[in-house]
Every structure is written in structure tokens, then in C-alpha cells.
């Protein structure tokens, strides 16, 4: 196959063709390529952020904290909402088309016949871009699991697991102990690590002991609770306390994400002396679109959230339906076919007055006929939309200023629909 033209969309399409499957967990090809790229020991230190939900939020908190501390920091997240460039930040900047294309060409020249998935190829691109910049630390969001994820090919300097729930069972296992074991595969000997979930599986605790980690977990070493003044208080068993406001995005679940990042910031204080004023400033300056993003469009109240598994759906439900309204609630919804639609929609089925269903442009998308069949069996009011604009127009036509519209179920729905409404990264 000939190389694509010097256009970023052509290159991204080309990269998608380099492996026979979309997901191929394993580090053999990553380590082989890192050796060819002379990147086994890069110029930067990595912090790995794993977990089922909240990874992107924690990457943003940590990125801003390192920046406030005067560190040169990069961040790698996935998937993106609007443009691929969002995945790789060097300091405060997104990478350019030219930088990406040059990096893609360099990796492709070394690849030979090594089959690389899209995520492996782009993770290598991230490593190369970071290595060639002057960043000191890279905050990396683990793509899937941990132990065999491409981001885990470089030994981390610190680790954070946000918490775990049932998701991606075909790759990670069908129970929390199995999933926890995969997530904790990012641990290394004597590396600081934090677990920020409400339930600590034995498998994670066993690996923490095996690697003699400097380990903090929620409910054991630290806790967080809401105060009468509306702020949240972090408490550590060493006596340290800190009050903070929730960030300007997301819901109440962000309190635990903030507390987990605070624990990690304190654990690495030998390397980067902890500064609580900088930490508070970092949280206040953080923002991630698509995490309970609330806004007004066409005189309607809209909620945008990338919730796509049971735990995130429960959080979204609590945050939205905690707010009473006079009118009705309708949803614009899509889901990937490998997700459990029963668990994602369970709480919403009796509360949503009308569903607008859409099949997103992705091979893994749940087909519109399957969406229709599921909601028909549950005797819900529904409408099948064929375009994003049709989703928007139908939602507006069937609501008033007293109603609200929730958009959730998939990154591949939230980003394009927000873009259609005029959103961008700024």
C-alpha cells in the first residue's frame, strides 16, 4: 500500500489499516518499535492514569497541577471529541498537522512489517513527540485495561487508578477482581500509586504488596466528604486536611477524582514538593468538555456527557435528576455494540419522556435497528434520526424552554453533535 498524501485525515485513515484487528492487547510490538526508535528510556517521566471512568478528568487535574508547579508537562488522552490533535498536548499546545505527519512518516519508515493498531501507532507518535520536545513529565491516559495497554510499554514514575467497574469484559474479565488485576498491571517496584475507587479489589491490594508500593487507597489512607459550606474536605490518615470546591465540570463524582490526584501529588512530593495553593488553582482552572457539560441552545437546557457504561450512567443520572424541572426530559442517545445497553439505560428508561436514537459513524456502533428493537421492547417513545442535524431539529421541535435535553452514550455522538452546535476546544 502506498503512503498517503500529506493530509492528516489521509494519514489517520491509513494508520487504521495497519493491523488486522482494532484492539490487540500486548506489548511485544510496542517494545519492538520503541527499540527501533531508541525510546526504551525516553527523556521524560510518565504518570499512568488507569481506571474505568474519570481518567480524562484526572489527567487534566494532574496536567494543570504540574504546570502550576512550573514543570514542563505533556498529556495524552483518548478518544477525542472534535479533532485527533486533542489527544496530544505539549505544555498548553495541541500538536499541529505538520508535526503529526512528520512523526507518522518517521514511525512508518521504521515499522517494516510490524502490525500496529491505531492506538499503538498513535501512542508511539505521542512518545516521539514528547521525547523531541522539552517536557519533563507526561501524563498518560491508559487506553484499555493497563497491563497490556500500549501506554504501559514505558515504565511509569507514578500510577493512579481512578476506580473500576464492569466494562470491556471481553478483554479484561467478567468480574472486578479480574478487571482490577489488569488495571494494576501498570504497577512497578517501589513506584508511588493511588487507587481512587470506592471498592478496592483484593487483586489490586495483592499487587500493591507484591511491588512494595508507596500505596494510598480511598477509604484506607484517605477520604473525602462534603462540608456544610458546600466544599469538600480531603482527609489523610497522616492528619493532613484540605478543603476544595468541585471543578467547573462534571458532577459530585469529581470530588473523589480530585482527592485521588491530591493523594498522588503528595506521594511524589520528594520529586515535586507539594504546594496546596497550586493544587487548588489547578483544579479551579481545569475543564473537560463532555463531562456533564451544561449549556443553553435554542432556549433549551442541554446536558452533554460521554457516559457509556453502568457506573458513568449512574453518576449522570444522579447529577441530572437531582435538578428538578417543570417540563419533560428527552434524550439523544447512541452506544457502541460492545456495551451493555440494559445497564447503561436502566435508570433512565422510566424517567426519559422521549428518546432520539442515532447510529454513529463507527464500525463498533450499535445499529439503529438494534437500538430501535431494544427501546421498543421497553415500550418507550422513540424516534430514529439519520443525521446529527435531524437529532437537533427533532429535539428542539419536541421541547419547550421548560424541558431539558440529555445527550449521552458515546464519545462518537457527543463530540460530533457538540461540534454541530458550534462548540470547539476554546
Shape estimate: globular
Corresponding CATH architecture of the largest domain: 3-Layer(aba) Sandwich
Question: Going across the major beta sheet, what is the strand order?
Answer: 4-3-2-5-1-6-7-8
Number of E strands? 17
CATH class of the largest domain: Alpha Beta
Percent of residues in beta strands? 15-25%
Largest sheet: 8 strands, mixed
Q: So how many helices?
A: 15
- Our measurement of the CA-to-CA distance between the termini, rounded to an integer number of angstroms, reads 38 Å
Helix content range: 25-40%
Mean pLDDT: 93
Tell me the name of the CATH homologous superfamily of the largest domain: Mur-like, catalytic domain
Instruction: Outline the low-pLDDT stretches.
Output: none
CATH fold-level name of the largest domain: UDP-N-acetylmuramoyl-L-alanine:D-glutamate ligase
Report the radius of gyration as a whole number of Å. Answer: 21 Å
Task: Give an overview of the whole structure.
The protein is α/β, with parallel strands linked by helices and 426 residues long. The protein folds into two domains: 8-284, UDP-N-acetylmuramoyl-L-alanine:D-glutamate ligase (3-Layer(aba) Sandwich), CATH 3.40.1190; 293-420, Alpha-Beta Complex (Protein-Tyrosine Phosphatase, Chain A). Helices cover 36% and strands 17% of the residues. It has 15 helices and 17 strands. It has helices at 8-15, 28-36, 55-68, 97-111, 118-132, 169-172, 176-183, 202-210, 254-267, 276-284, 310-321, 341-345, 368-377, 388-397, 411-420, and strands spanning 45-50, 73-76, 88-90, 93-94, 137-141, 158-161, 193-195, 215-217, 222-226, 232-236, 241-244, 293-297, 300-305, 329-333, 354-358, 382-385, 404-408. The strands form three sheets. Strands 4-3-2-5-1-6-7-8 form an eight-stranded mixed beta sheet, sandwiched between helices. A six-stranded mixed beta sheet has the order 12-13-17-14-15-16, sandwiched between helices. Strand 3 (88-90) and strand 4 form a beta hairpin. Helix 4 (97-111) packs across helix 5 (118-132). The radius of gyration is 21 Å and the shape is globular. The model has no long low-confidence stretch (mean pLDDT 93).
